[in-house]
Amino acid sequence: MSGFVVEPWRLRWETIDVDQLHRTESAFALANGHLGMRGSLDEGEPVGLPGTYLNGFYEEHSLPYAEAGYGYPEAGQTVVNVTDGKIMRLLVEDEPLDMRYGKAHTHHRTLDFRTGVLTRETEWESPTGRRVLVKTRRLVSFTQRAVAAIRYEVTPLEDTTQLVVQSDLLANEPIVSESRDPRVALALKSPLAGEFHWSEGYRAVLVHRTKESGLRMAAAMDHEIDANDGLRTEISCEDDLARLTIAADIAAGETLSVTKYLAYGWSAQRSAPALRAQAEAALAGARQTGWEGLLAEQEAFLDDFWEAADVEIDGDPALQQALRLALFHIAQAGARGESRAIPGKGLTGPGYDGHAFWDTETFVLPVLTYTMPDAARDALRWRHSTLEAARDRAEVLGKSGAAFPWRSINGAECSAYWPAGTAAFHVSADIADATARYLAATGDEDFDREYATELLVETARLWASLGHHDPHDGFRIDGVTGPDEYTAVVDNNVYTNLMAQKNLREALAACERNPGVAEALGVTDAEKSVWADAAERMHVPYDELLGVHPQAEAFTQHEEWDFENTPEDGYPLLLNYPYFELYRKQVVKQADLVLALHLRGDAFTPEEKARDFAYYEARTVRDSSLSAGTQAVMAAECGHLDLAYDYLAEAALTDLDDLHGNVKNGLHMASLAGAWQAVVAGLGGMRDHGGELTFAPRLPRGLSRVSFRMSFRGTRLRVEVTHDNATYHLVSGDPITTTHHGEPVEIGPSPVTLGIPPAPDNPTPQQPHGREPRRGARRAGESS
Amino acid sequence: MSGFVVEPWRLRWETIDVDQLHRTESAFALANGHLGMRGSLDEGEPVGLPGTYLNGFYEEHSLPYAEAGYGYPEAGQTVVNVTDGKIMRLLVEDEPLDMRYGKAHTHHRTLDFRTGVLTRETEWESPTGRRVLVKTRRLVSFTQRAVAAIRYEVTPLEDTTQLVVQSDLLANEPIVSESRDPRVALALKSPLAGEFHWSEGYRAVLVHRTKESGLRMAAAMDHEIDANDGLRTEISCEDDLARLTIAADIAAGETLSVTKYLAYGWSAQRSAPALRAQAEAALAGARQTGWEGLLAEQEAFLDDFWEAADVEIDGDPALQQALRLALFHIAQAGARGESRAIPGKGLTGPGYDGHAFWDTETFVLPVLTYTMPDAARDALRWRHSTLEAARDRAEVLGKSGAAFPWRSINGAECSAYWPAGTAAFHVSADIADATARYLAATGDEDFDREYATELLVETARLWASLGHHDPHDGFRIDGVTGPDEYTAVVDNNVYTNLMAQKNLREALAACERNPGVAEALGVTDAEKSVWADAAERMHVPYDELLGVHPQAEAFTQHEEWDFENTPEDGYPLLLNYPYFELYRKQVVKQADLVLALHLRGDAFTPEEKARDFAYYEARTVRDSSLSAGTQAVMAAECGHLDLAYDYLAEAALTDLDDLHGNVKNGLHMASLAGAWQAVVAGLGGMRDHGGELTFAPRLPRGLSRVSFRMSFRGTRLRVEVTHDNATYHLVSGDPITTTHHGEPVEIGPSPVTLGIPPAPDNPTPQQPHGREPRRGARRAGESS
């Protein structure tokens, strides 16, 4: 049981549970893709892990190698906890409000998915018996990307009480580093050097610069105070702290109300005065809109989002809540990224050092493409903005075109272990795949000309130079790492080869669409015929003896993992077994061949899919949060609908239940996105091979109705699925044509209802010993 | 041209060449396997790289990882430059003798392979015009392993001259570290902490302890002085310095003679007083033997060695010298190791951090086995003494038996990059191979019972647990790295599989010979049948299309390296290309499949050998010094005798010509040993498959006669080869039976002369563009 109260449109936590703060802070994080704030208590302490993030703002540190190698990245990047503007401390007649002391008669925090506001309500009795009601609301604006705002209200409940509120901008908050590397810990101990501070009236600005990466940021605050006349305020500032102190005697039942407006900005280039001006201008905009105005804008933004994106689940309230939370956080991660990356944890925590991975393109962008396409476009524009770094990287590696980094904040490779980093070249095909998907789903011709064609061409060039034609068996791509991180540096990884094949074909198509762009990029007929030939002759290994595809060459000849004798605390395996042992055995961390079955389903027969799925199902341990969603999709396609449901639930609840034990460091965006995939591509059977939208919906026994929304080429539609039928609704826009279980359907003004054929009847696959779906194993006895 | 004067029994350098000191110091290094001293000038400066080493004495430092992994070694070990006792400084009337100042009228250093003494003779004129003749002799005793001695003689040539000699023990000499890792550099900056110092009369002792590894060492010195009456001496000591100062006025033509005796000891357990006592006792022994006695013992030891080991070459004086130097240094590396490792650089420099690798067992021990078998036995006893660490390592890796480290000083794995370290499991089979070879060559039953059987059993257990039976193709060993470091973590490396097969069979044979030992080790019939079955069904991949063995699974399907477009300064490739690119292409750093053709020649037909050799010859770049010797062996067997000669010369001259540009850090023991292999196994065609000694000698056109000696089961023999005949001489011991080109021969008191059949006629193989043998490319124009 997650501890959260189950409601369809809100996430709510009703107790204090100091030892669970790290979890709730991540789940209650607010962000807009540019600015993120963990859901910490207003008073700053107790805290699980403090965190305020500006997308793209990082500190640099050297990467140490006991044995160095040519082309190893020398500098690492780590997201910085920037100036914390959300702190509002309260003194109640000399007693600081601290949830560890005194008594909380009531205390709850609520994140509302429709208003986009995090509410906190605490009725607190101080150790000396003073009772106050504290109500706070916090938002990070979707409409004004530099802005956050807090309404902080305190009401004495019994006597006139002296209240002192301290509203801070605090830089270089102490953080307990968990890094094993002393250099990283040092780099992050106090990363910000003060450059400028100023305060006057209710307003203050701090400007800082990172010590190594040399990035500059400004944080500014302004306030509105609503209280009686006896108010006394004082503002002060120094390098790492600006503080507005508000003191007042408030009568019982009266309320001291403070509205705090926050604005942030950062730049690698702009001066301290320019950044200060930028933050103050954003602040002026926020004050002009006002608190009520910001609330209204926030809700309007989300109304539109839910119209495009909502998922309804009948029969499983906890799953309903989890799916809306997932969509809400994906929107928060991508909405206003505007040519910055979408990190693996969004802006909800410092996990993965704040790096972006292939997670974004393969898992998050499909969701955004079909629900908030402009955000998908912006994320791809970030990749495009890093093309120069990717070309440089390809050159260092002796390759042509662009080799995108395995992990990065600014576009430069930060992966210090190349077999599970640089070798995972598939990230470049994943970017091409996301680019092609966005183009097909939107028909965005400007993007095609200005960004997409170049992305597709440069990644196609990478594949042409990575592979080679061999007399034995066609076009091979050797020595690379596929999605499964328990196997590395292998030949002809099926996922990689098929995604590269698609990449090459998409590049050819893009050059046909945009011959001028192709010419400007120097694409010749000879080069195009190289691509066509490589795609045509792409080698896909197959094990005739077992009748399945090996995930990569020879995989099915490797020793089986001894699951029976692997103890439960032996997972995740990578913390308890050496890489060499994982790599050489048939144990799969996360969907790899099965992901190919989904994304390149057009390259497999239904019989192959059924056999392959069953084979890998028995060898996949899901030590990665990226896996369950994809397994749900393919389980559904292969007719294992109850299993699909179990994996859907696992993906959706990964963070709420903290299945990986690391939600403290932020939410797993790809897992949240995987939950959406499990619904839409899994239960909905949505596919987009070749840019064509098709459906093949089916429900598991445990759910009575599922409805999901998406947009395609400007049309918003809703698909409603029951056990017997699916109904296709046009929400807005022009009618579109699709298919339902292979039958053509025109979705127009009148809903179309179609019957659902019986599921394919394949034998139930088995998971490795002890690795059944997490929700499945407990579903029967679970109440929430 | 190497710069050394070519003489058959001496290595001589006749100029000062300060910029060449790093080279000459390595070549002139003296050692006995326990104590090593680089050939630095007596006065300490100028110096290439100071170095005094005690085998097994190291400092520890943490190994940093930007991304850590389970089972990664946490501590590194690095050989320590211990207290320097060879320093003798000279003041000539106020002017310090320094070869960078004044004028050297003559200056030469000579290492004599028969006396084992390094001589230096310098006629020096001080900047103010005083002329002196300095003659020094230095030895590190083969017979008294803790002892070194120096005879230092100064003769004023024109006037009575005041001479001051300072004889030092100096700890923590400043060294310029070349490590990229600041932690390693720091650990080695001043590794020794003074624990005790004492001096009296002409004698002094310093005791130190390493700061991290906690090893303790003592260095002691004593002196005899032969001079006129006006002598004044003073002895002093402090933590890091003990100094005897000798001042005297010496008449022209008279000689001040100082004999310095040095003794060293170290221990991980013994106390400072105990170590002091140990060093002083060794000193007492040395003084009792006296300088002349030490000289006599040294020469007697070497007389015996050369009787057993000498190689004669007619037609190539530089090669003759290089081969004797090689044998001399191998004797120095192994003679008195006594259960310590033989490091990759011997005790000639700090290269490879002082670690021992598989080089020892595969390259150095065959030489010692057939020339100084007790030293081979002692080196294998070192491996046996580390069995516990190897068992622990196997357990960490989830394997049975013993997994010996890739690189180590004390037996614990120090390799920080597992694909080229831990994954190179073949080191354990190499140890088994060396063990079996020693047993067959000596019939040492005590060693068999007490050490060998356990080594063979525990390594066999490793292979049984590393491999698995697969329905596709028998017993596979997946995910390991073979000898070629430009390919890593592969399946069914042919070398590894065949050496493992031999390992399993040798273990079975050992258990048959020593059933009691086998029982004590818990070997059951079931286990033996597992070994037998694995050996029987060991998979050896073969490429039917190309008709060659792939070095490992799929190797021959990989892309070819573009040698034509690889510039000369692109070598060594690992410094200029990323691992990922090297690993995925057909480029070979060093003999791998070709080493299998040599060591497991019994597993290949002559036709296979010829085709395989040609195939790999075209893809092997020899970026490793381990390669040329093996290529010489197989070139000879395949009938390419001129090529064998070229590779023999390359192996022999690797260090004299500084082919790898790193001789500063010490001599490459394996390359020196490879030169011996090139003569004996190459031109001599010596093989020892199944413990049977056989010969198949043939000469290249450029040599008129080659003679080599070796011992087998207590018999010393000499094989003399001309173009037409080979003559087998019994040097001492019982007659033995062998074969000559397949014909049985009994070598008894009368020499047997047999004709040499024509060489097989295979097409001349090609090397990669620009990677022809180094000597071959220049042979025509070379004078030395």
Automatic annotation (TrEMBL), chains A, B:
UniProt feature, compositional bias: Pro residues: 757-766
InterPro entries attached to this UniProt entry: 6-hairpin_glycosidase_sf, 6hp_glycosidase-like_sf, Gal_mutarotase_sf_dom, GH65_N, Glyco_hydro_65_C, Glyco_hydro_65_M, Glyco_hydro_65_N, Malt_Pase/Glycosyl_Hdrlase
Gene Ontology molecular-function annotations: alpha,alpha-trehalose phosphorylase activity; carbohydrate binding; hydrolase activity, hydrolyzing O-glycosyl compounds; maltose phosphorylase activity
SUPFAM superfamilies membership: Galactose mutarotase-like (SSF74650), Six-hairpin glycosidases (SSF48208)
A Pfam family that the UniProt record links to this protein: Glyco_hydro_65N
Domain Glycoside hydrolase family 65 N-terminal, first and last residues per copy: 13-267
Stretches of the chain forming a coiled coil according to its record: none
Biased composition (Basic and acidic residues): 769-784
Gene Ontology biological process terms, A to Z: carbohydrate metabolic process
Enzyme class: transferase
Residue positions of the active site: 485 (proton donor)
Residues in Glycoside hydrolase family 65 C-terminal domain copies: 686-746
Region (Disordered): 732-784
The enzyme's E.C. designation: 2.4.1.64, 2.4.1.8
Stated family: Belongs to the glycosyl hydrolase 65 family.
Protein's name according to its UniProt entry: Maltose phosphorylase
Originating organism: Actinokineospora spheciospongiae
